Amino acid sequence: MLVLLIRHAMTPVQDRLGQRAAISLSPEGELQATRLAQRLKNVNLAAVFTSPLTRAVQTARAIVARREVPLITEAALREVDVGEWDGRTFSELEAMGLWKHFNTFRSGVRTPGGEMMIEVQARIVGCLERWAREYGDHTIAAVSHADVIRGAICHYSGIPLDVSMRVRICHGSISALSLWESGAQLICLNDSGEWGGWSS
Fold it and tell me: Are the CB atoms for 8 and 51 separated by under 8 Å?
């Protein structure tokens, strides 16, 4: 299976963490989602999965517009639950020692009332393994969030979660993984240019 891990397009709010609220795409994000759909128009997708959050659903809807591809909401693709930190500005968080610890020890620090990154990684990897069994040699797309995509990339590339912030995942970017029964391969990372017809 080839899975295209896509970060949702841009929103008007860029200075806050979590953002589990129903935040829509910005005008720039809407254009970004349209360009993303154009890039993928010739890719034969068996399905498009999306996080249940509004910004991801809007991005996914742009991809499936005017094509007969099922759009499926998948809870495992949701944003990281940062608990009490949700909605706080990054400037607020910078003053907290635990925030700095979280960003250097992501494998072992739980946000107050939220998830550990290792739990996030487990839910996305479990989902990808299930899809690999279900979709075989087909290509699917999954619209999610930066940290969730990082969790998958780090798992399959052997990158420790504690250095996951070195992996950049931009809005509207595509990272492609080829998964099969006995292994995996990272095909591309954070691609925001023209889709080059990568195959597994």
Answer: yes
Has residue 198 got a pLDDT over 60? no
Domain 2-191: CATH class, spelled out: alpha beta
Q: What pLDDT was estimated at residue 18?
A: 73
pTM: 0.93
**Is residue 26 within 8 Å of residue 10, measured between CB atoms?**
yes
Q: Is the pLDDT of residue 197 over 80?
A: no
Q: Token pair for residue 66?
A: 């005017």
Q: Are 70 and 47 in contact (CB under 8 A)?
A: yes
What is the mean predicted confidence (pLDDT) over 75-103? 92
Backbone angles phi, psi at 77, to 5 degrees: -90, 0
- Which distant-in-sequence residues (6+ apart) come within 8 Å of 139 by Cβ? 1, 2, 3, 4, 43, 44, 45, 46, 200
Cα 57 from chain centroid?
12
Q: Which of 85, 193, 89, 75 is nearest to 144 (CA)?
A: 75
Q: Pick the more confident residue, 71 or 197.
A: 71
The whole-number average pLDDT for the span 149-177 is: 96
The residue extents of the domains of the chain are 2-191
* DSSP run (H or E) holding 93: helix 90-94
Would you give the end-to-end CA distance of the chain in angstroms?
A: 7
How many whole angstroms separate alpha carbon 79 and alpha carbon 53?
Answer: 8
Residue 152 has pLDDT above 80, yes or no: yes
